[in-house]
User: Fold NB-ARC domain-containing protein from Solanum tuberosum.
Amino acid sequence: MSVRSRKHLQEIDKFDLKDVHNNLNQLQVKLKDSLKGKKFLIVLDDVWNDNYNEWDDLRNSFVQGDIGSKFIVTTRKESVALMMGNEQITMDTLSIEVSWSLFKRHAFENMDPMGHPELEEVGKQIAAKCKGLPLALKTLAGMLRSKLEVEEWKRILRSEIWELPHNDILPALMLSYNDLPAHLKRCFSYCAIFPKDYSFRKEQVIHLWIANGLVPKEDEIIEDSGNQYFLELRSRSLFERVPNIEKFLMHDLVNDLAQIASSKLCIRLEESQGSHMLEKSRHLSYSMGYGEFEKLTPIYKLEQLRTLLPIDIDLRYDCHLSKRVQHDILPRLRSLRVQSLSHYQIKELPNDLFIKLKLVRFLDLSWTKIKRLPDSICALYNLETLLLSWCADLEELPLQMEKLINLRHLDKLHLSQNVSDRT
Assistant:
């Protein structure tokens, strides 16, 4: 791709997402103009949508590219490949030799396998049991890389989990989960609250863990402990780095594992089936959009709920939270430790809202239109993290903020100078 082409694509990257969501046609025009007469390669990874009309709409954005331009699409869904209609390449599982090479690279990264012949022999047998599946190989290798006792490797090889009647990859992932110490099991299973393909920030996850008491308060700084937990889970390939940005995600199958591990205590509202599952849940997320009161009405009796996390999957930037939610639903959730209203277009909150939510430890009001915080926020004696970044309309803070005696983290990025000075 030419330097000029890169410049055009950089301009596309800078295109205001708010404008995109107000009028998607603007993005199509921008793409057509920027790529007109240029040869390009577009890679769409892990596609699940097999709606032909939506695919055709997307493809029309690139019709003015030069001859020789290409799309590469990867998918695990046969109907997607058939819908594309062009040349298809079916990927086979890895050969025994390649499987061992991949396993060896991750399991013996810090040592020479030739110096550990017993581990190498058992490792080859474990690699064979992974049936050529890269995620299974990488996950188990990541788990074993810190274990030097051959008996620990043999225990994995002899495990009965290999015989479970699940898909081929789940036994390997379950072995990796079972090997986690108890504190990491709790932190990992909590991440079932995130939808598939959702990219999250490390700091976000650590704050959520801390707010729910999943990271013990010891002599060292608690955020450092949370960071260490995160790095340990990542070293076992349970978290993956999103290329080119400071975010992470879980593979779809790892997300499935987290949901199994959470025993339905951490769920997505859209995926809950009936009131029984909701009644059991302790941590809940949902997709932001329209009709929030109707969507959230089923949770108003969940007095045991610890986390309520709206997720702006579609980057709508125009989501509104009705006053009925603020007055009739949120105050009933008296066990909340985590409350996020981030990205809602709210300008004010009920004055007495936080009087009834005294257990809240994490409060995210970032990217809202709020002009002032209610005085009742000063009643949140347990509050540890308050996120106010990008609250450009915030004019002042309550006078008695010093009552927040447990507040450790205040994010005030891009606040007005008057408000920043007062904090």
